[in-house]
Amino acid sequence: MDPKNYLCFSLYACSRAISRMYRPLLENMGITYPQYLVLMVLWEHGESTVKELGEALDLDSGTLTPLLKRMEANKLIVRERSKEDERVVVVKLAETGAALKEEADCIPMSLLTASGMTTEEIVRLTESINDLSEKVVRAIGK
User: Could you tell me the residue range of the domain that residue 11 belongs to?
Assistant: First the structure.
């Protein structure tokens, strides 16, 4: 059978293709795709705990912590212990990370244009994928 006939392969192949579309845009900014995802959450919320970031991005702390350490070393973010609970690490944008938002604002439109789809089609597709994801997560009991 042709792998393209399977949903899992189609989603995987699409994800890889989208990552390849992002790569040159993000390389110009000096960041990776996972770093871009962290920055998107912080641009929207201003700050976040490591736990909240992990939940938002569906990443465990073993994956997220080294990523955040690299971002802090590159002066994109600042990590601080919470004053209320020292077990909690709060992640905030550093000046460099905040400044990248303006440069990144063109990325969604660039990708929309490259996709050849309308905004409405992208919204419907995103809703369908999110719905599928929620159902799969419920089915596996996560």
Answer: 3-105
From 136, 108, 135, 102, select the one nearest 122 (Cα to Cα).
108
CA angle 52, 57, 61 (to 5 degrees): 65
Question: Are residues 71 and 99 located together in one domain of the fold?
Answer: yes
* 10-31 mean pLDDT: 93
CATH code, domain carrying 68? 1.10.10.10
CA-closest candidate to residue 79, choices 100, 58, 49: 49
Number of domains the chain is built from: 2
Do 17 and 68 lie in one domain? The reply is yes
Cβ–Cβ < 8 Å for 93, 77: yes
Q: pTM of the entire structure?
A: 0.86
Element (H, E) at 76: none
Mean pLDDT of the region 87-102? 95
